[in-house]
Automatic annotation (TrEMBL):
Keywords: FAD, Flavoprotein, Membrane, Monooxygenase, Oxidoreductase, Transmembrane, Transmembrane helix
UniProt-recorded Gene Ontology molecular function terms: 2-octaprenyl-6-methoxyphenol hydroxylase activity; FAD binding
Coiled-coil zones: none
Residue span(s) of domain FAD-binding: 6-338
Pathway given in the UniProt record: Cofactor biosynthesis; ubiquinone biosynthesis
InterPro entries: FAD-bd, FAD/NAD-bd_sf, UbiH/COQ6, UbiH/COQ6_monooxygenase
Organism of provenance: Alcanivorax nanhaiticus
Pfam families: FAD_binding_3
Cofactor(s) this protein requires: FAD
Ranges annotated as spanning the membrane: 6-22
Family, similarity comment: Belongs to the UbiH/COQ6 family.
Official protein name in the record: Oxygenase
Amino acid sequence: MTQQPLVIVGGGMAGAMLALLLRRHGAGSVVLVESHPLTLPEAPPLTPSFDARSTALSAGTLAVLDDLGLGQAIREHAAGIGTVHVSRQSRLGLTRMSAQEEGVDQLGVVVENRWLGFVLLGALFGDDAITVRAPDTLSGIRRLEHGYQVSLSSGDVLETPLLIAADGARSKTREWLGISARDHDTGHDALIANLSLAGPHSGIAYERFLNDGPLALLPLPDQRFALVWTGPRSQVEQWMAMGEAEVMAELQSRCPAEAPRLTGIGERQRYPLVLTEACAQVVPHAVVVGNAAHTLHPVAGQGFNLTVRDLLALAQTVGGSDQPGSLTTLQAYAQKREKDQALISQASRWVPELFRVQQPLFAHSRQLGLVALDILPGLRSGFAKRAMGL
Ligand SMILES: Cc1cc2nc3c(=O)[nH]c(=O)nc-3n(C[C@H](O)[C@H](O)[C@H](O)COP(=O)(O)OP(=O)(O)OC[C@H]3O[C@@H](n4cnc5c(N)ncnc54)[C@H](O)[C@@H]3O)c2cc1C
């Protein structure tokens, strides 16, 4: 086992999760560098990852959290998803995916990112072999014969056999590694907020394809929904500027009739939907993960779930390895993850596009798509299994 620590740059959802998984799968020591302060236990952290959003965690992600001993803590502050209800504005065609049909207790759960951060960071701080350097920032890297020298803005210098870039879509580490990235600006933004409801949501998540873009209502504890409402940037700007009564009326008119009535909206925040894809994910002694590797459209809540499957495979491949930075080892990891990444990235890119196109032929085929999903349990089941990360 190597004596030098594995170094992760970025202590967001991906970096924090990876540090824990690497330890679980045999890594001797890990250093996590995060540019924002990470505080515990007084207050849940507020960083670019652990912010006001909520995340739908698939059954597969929950199983990984269970293995880390964290599943219960997450479930205590999460709402289960029993059914996903998919519909299209003012059209026929509706499908439901249900836990019962899949033979599982839940399709997944929805948790607020702040709580997810609180649980992950609690576990990080509880492991003496994980050193958290926050706030501190990567200020430069230098290639050594058997790894990288990593300089931090605090003035500290570390040496590592494996440098992991988990510093988000605009990753500096990726850039310094000489790995370029492709950006696709959708021209759309996502507005997120928490909503209070007049009645129980009964564990139903709603995914609604509107002419502007998809809208998701995800169940949260205490009779609330987490809203992800996407649309053209100028349109989202208007929704952000509206008074509460006006924006509630706009939103209510777009919600499926089956969903409980909305009674209030919390603080609104917006995220530009720029989809990023790294041109390579591994080079000798370095690997790129999370948003730094692939930033997806939030349409089906797949970004973090896909990342967790990557991180598990990476930890299993390099965690106990004597040569975690060997290109052969890293390439084996990349190859293992290629198919799943391609499928999910393409689906989350093309599904919103397909539903946006207004031509009658497309309108007809996407309607048929929803109807087919509803009529053919096998098709729906395959879709649900993939979304559950199973
Ligand atoms: C509106 C919205 C809703 C979503 N909903 C879901 C969902 O329901 N389910 C799901 O699976 N996914 C969802 N996602 C995707 C999910 O949020 C991402 O997969 C996740 O945020 C990726 O985390 P990350 O740690 O890779 O990147 P980030 O969250 O960007 O974190 C990067 C971290 O690196 C730090 N950093 C940056 N530069 C440096 C540096 N030089 N030195 C040190 N630290 C640095 C930053 O401060 C930050 O903490 C959603 C995304 C959006 C936008």
